[in-house]
Design brief:
148 residues
Length: 148
């Protein structure tokens, strides 16, 4: 199945320019830009290094754990990819560690280079706005005090 998928996944060479830095970006080239060889993403994946897992320092960070526990809606994994089916298509892919890392990321999220422990940065930064909702008692008290 992998071989058929790899043939069908080949894409034409696409060259574009990054709006932020002006560097030329190729959608199919992963290597020496001066090389005549431009592998497809499928070919590149056969030798790609597995994506790293979430750093251990983030997993044991109590602030991160509390934030995830208190606000799971911020960390919901949303993807149109049916991971089990995708994984079955790649059952014969020669680079099993890479496939496992991609599928893990699709299930658990991709944050392999996360670092929330940078010097000079606060552990948290609350940018929420105060509630404009007033309780009935507060509204009643304000109205009464305005009358006198």
């Amino acid at each position: 199945m992998w071989e058929k998928w790899a043939r069908e996944a080949s894409v034409p060479h696409l060259e574009t320019t990054c709006m932020g830095c002006g560097h030329s970006i190729s959608a199919t080239t992963f290597g020496d830009p001066k090389s005549d060889f431009t592998p497809t993403t499928a070919e590149w994946s056969e030798t790609a290094t597995p994506l790293p897992s979430t750093p251990a320092s983030e997993i044991v960070n109590p602030v991160v754990a509390q934030t995830i526990r208190d606000h799971p809606e911020l960390f919901k994994i949303v993807t149109p990819i049916k991971v089990e089916i995708f994984e079955s298509y790649l059952a014969t892919h020669p680079n099993r560690p890479f496939v496992a890392s991609v599928c893990r990321g699709l299930r658990e999220g991709f944050w392999p280079w996360a670092n929330t422990l940078l010097d000079g940065y606060p552990e948290t930064h609350d940018v929420s706005k105060p509630s404009t909702h007033r309780s009935a008692e507060e509204t009643f008290t304000n109205v009464k005090s305005a009358q006198y």
